[in-house]
Amino acid sequence: MISDSHLRLGIPSKGRLSDLATDLLSQAGLRFRRQNRGLFARVSGMDVDLVYLRTDDIPTLCAEGAIDMGITGGDLVQESGAAVEQRMKFGVGRCRLAFCVPDDKEIKSAAELDGKRIATSFPNVTRQYLAEHGAQAHLVSLAGSVEAMIQLGVADAIVDLVETGSTLAANRLRILEEIGHYETVLIQNDTRRLSGIADSLVQRLEGVVIARDYSLIQYNVPRRELAAAEKVTPGFNSPTINSLEDADWCSVQVMVRRGEVVDVMDQLKLIGATAVFEMTLNNCRL
Ligand code: PRP
């Protein structure tokens, strides 16, 4: 089934990240079908084979060359210490890795955890951070449910991922110190085998990721206000300006970050823009 002339892309076999990777690849125009929870799926029309793996094995298997590229969490790449190249960030799956302690504990910094017990699924990152801060701790290395370990009497503090903070609140824990910020990433083996296919895959995925981040805004504005409008909407590279029948007016098309669209529309109205429309982008090549 698997072929040496095809680029092997490792993706998570289950969980949130598996759904996310599948959606991204489909939106990027890759057509594939996974048979009966199989290990492999061939992409039609592109020399790519998908390999379904455990998310935390993907960095190591990519460094070893079992797969050429992989979609996984930046946190797992760092913990594995795998020597891989990060090709792109997806802008999703954002989280923080942090030292957390009980709400009511009078402790101010991670350095004060010297000699204490720390439960974590990230022993390597934790050990290195403590060493950089002149501390050493007894690490209790676990695969999950780390936030329960203080109540179970196994640890004085934990190092865990925090996304919304609701798990911490439910367990009466607070962040003591953040170690790092991570998100879902695309990694590549540093021999860059089949680099042409890899680059075309990156281009396709970037098209989707940028389109998810931006909207296309179109509006009409009096020509005398064009400079002011361009300050509000400078665009990704530069805005497209078209003439209108009325020579005193022009029409502008420009990319705007989704999170800023409402504010930008309000500012354009104040300048005197009319017919301000937001259009959703599905894909792009810039
Ligand atoms: C992760 C992490 C925390 C939780 C944080 O667990 O380990 O427990 O999410 O998210 P929150 O800040 O939004 O509450 P995950 O659900 O991946 O399962 P795990 O416990 O098996 O690691």
UniProtKB/TrEMBL annotation:
InterPro entries reported in the protein's UniProt record: ATP-PRT_HisG_long, ATP_PRibTrfase_cat, ATP_PRibTrfase_CS, ATP_PRibTrfase_HisG, HisG_C, N-reg_PII-like_a/b, N-reg_PII/ATP_PRibTrfase_C
Description of activity control: Feedback inhibited by histidine.
Recorded GO CC terms: cytoplasm
Pfam families registered for this protein in UniProt: HisG, HisG_C
Enzyme Commission designation: 2.4.2.17
Catalysed transformations (reactions): 1-(5-phospho-beta-D-ribosyl)-ATP + diphosphate = 5-phospho-alpha-D-ribose 1-diphosphate + ATP
Annotated keywords: Amino-acid biosynthesis, ATP-binding, Cytoplasm, Glycosyltransferase, Histidine biosynthesis, Magnesium, Metal-binding, Nucleotide-binding, Transferase
One annotated GO molecular function: ATP binding
Enzyme class: transferase
Role noted for this protein: Catalyzes the condensation of ATP and 5-phosphoribose 1-diphosphate to form N'-(5'-phosphoribosyl)-ATP (PR-ATP). Has a crucial role in the pathway because the rate of histidine biosynthesis seems to be controlled primarily by regulation of HisG enzymatic activity.
HAMAP family reported in the protein's UniProt record: HisG_Long
Protein name: ATP phosphoribosyltransferase
Source organism of this protein record: Allorhodopirellula solitaria
Phylogenetic lineage: Bacteria, Pseudomonadati, Planctomycetota, Planctomycetia, Pirellulales
Gene: hisG
